[in-house]
Amino acid sequence: MKKFKTESKKLLDLMINSIYTNREIFLRELISNASDAVDKLYFKSLTDSDVQLSKDELAIHVGFDEGARTITISDNGIGMTKDELDKNLGTIAHSDSQAFKTDNAEQQGDDIDIIGQFGVGFYSSFMVASKVRVVSRAFGSDEAWAWESDGVEGYTIAEAERAEHGTDVILTLKENTDEDNYDTYLSEYGLKDLIKRYSNYVRYPIQMEVSKTREKPKPEDAGEDYKPEYETYTETDTINSMIPIWKRKKSDVTDEEYNEFYKTNFHDFADPARTVSLHAEGALTYDALLFVPSRAPYDLYSKDFKKGLALYSSNVLIMDKCEDLLPDYFNFVRGIVDSQDLTLNISRETLQHNSQLKAIARRVEKKIKSDLENFLEKDREGYEKFFENFGRGMKYGLYTSYGTAKDVLGDLLLFYSAKQKKMITFKEYVKAAADGQETIYYATGDSVERMAQLPIVTTVLAKGYDVLLCPEDVDEFCMMAMSDYAVPDAADPDSLTAWPLKNVGGENLGLESDEEKKEAEETAESNKDLFEAMKSALDGKVEKVAVSTRQTDAPAFITTEGGVSLKMEKILAGAPKSAEEESAVKSHRVLEVNAKHPVFEVMQKAQEAGDDEKVKLYSGILYDQALLVEGIPLDDPVAYTEAVTKLMK
Description:
Shape: elongated
Mean pLDDT: 87
Low-confidence stretches: 114-118
CATH topology of the largest domain: Heat Shock Protein 90
Strand order of the largest sheet: 1-6-5-4-7-3-2-8-9
Structural class: alpha+beta
CATH class of the largest domain: Alpha Beta
Distance between the termini: 109 Å
CATH architecture of the largest domain: 2-Layer Sandwich
Number of strands: 23
Number of domains: 4
């Protein structure tokens, strides 16, 4: 027996017990090695005229023997000599495939694609096997050799028998324990599942003997009561698809094929709303196939939902969901990315965070944005339905990015227009804006119908300005993060003009004329004592009472000062809090009074007559009515009812 060197023993132990976290990838690694061996022989046939070989003759075979507890992976590739077995399998982390790629880099192309990049994949087999035997016969040689090891002390190499060139890797599986069930891999279903999941797009056929049933021929003398009989038989089947759909030309793939691939691989019963293919060549070569679902998965907004694209390296699955390839606001996108150029870590189970991955992620993001913009332009009805499903997540993504994603998402967001009575974009809002308008106005509330009737909205509409109605909890946070929307300057298209976003529930919108402003100031000054009395009557519920400059039929309404609106206060009040956060965040409320309303005249007279009780009564009723209009529950409904009853007597 040849002993592993001390360093090699330590490295082997590290690989078996630490580097690989998912033991089922052993089959992926061994099939990838087999594919490399077949590829090398095919490459030899292309570069050596003495080698007469058809690509159709090349294949990989997987089999198992439940009684002997063995799994065998065989190929008819280039095989290995005795020295190559010693070098490739006796030296941990030696990569013959990587050396082949380096030596023949300029001659590789669509026909040759070496998968293996590390000399450690073979040793993943010791995660499931107590013994590994490799029998190999090099192409053009009459000799076959067997390498054998238990993965502990060392290995042996001895003469063996093999009918033709190629390699057999025979794994003797470990015995089951209370924690680990290795019998999972000793079944037709278990092996087929691993092949389809990890190696479905290896370019050579992966074949297995599979069990099937068929109806026996009906006997000639069978009576009318004959019942069909069935028999079980075995047949060699090709398990893998070989040609990945993302490597085919888009013109050669039908919509039905794309839809079927999506539904099968991403477990959805509905066709996708959009299919996006991407092929990049240059410093980094990769293919991407992306899908925008037509409906939101049930767990999209749950903490258990995990975003990400399936990552392949040379058609071999590396990760089911690579989160780094998608920003959070596009978490709904499904699909795959396949690149042979990525720098993977030693186990191929995780990625190094490098510029290659970031470059792909940036390109994927741009492609998704571009396709969604096209979706919005070409199929408005379809896009609005898409936005119903996924718009909330995009708005939340803009908020959590602190507005840095507004260049990506700004043109994709939709809000309900109070003026146009339909969903519109910021761009459409600006295009339809009134002459001289330079601000985008929005309102927040519980429903579009209720907001459309609010005095703070109708007064802005009366000025000829549109208001975006925002009923979702995330809307105001989104608007605050967005802060403004940039549009090309009419005089200089190369420069941008920022349109600030302003909540109509704020105190000062600046929509009043100089005359209206002056009139309000005079009214406030002449009724200073009344307003002080009203504020005192409300006992800290409002920051101040002011004269409204808005054109409204309402006697009074509530606006806010500062960054916390009524809607935000309501949202924050319902959020879970720690013991230290028990005090609720409050908005700074302002009671704006319509000085032209008959009720104000009544209050003036009460103030002049010294009827403090009536001023207090009216102040409380006006405030509570304003809250009811905003859809905010009253602190004391009984007190409000008693006040109204008292007024009616």
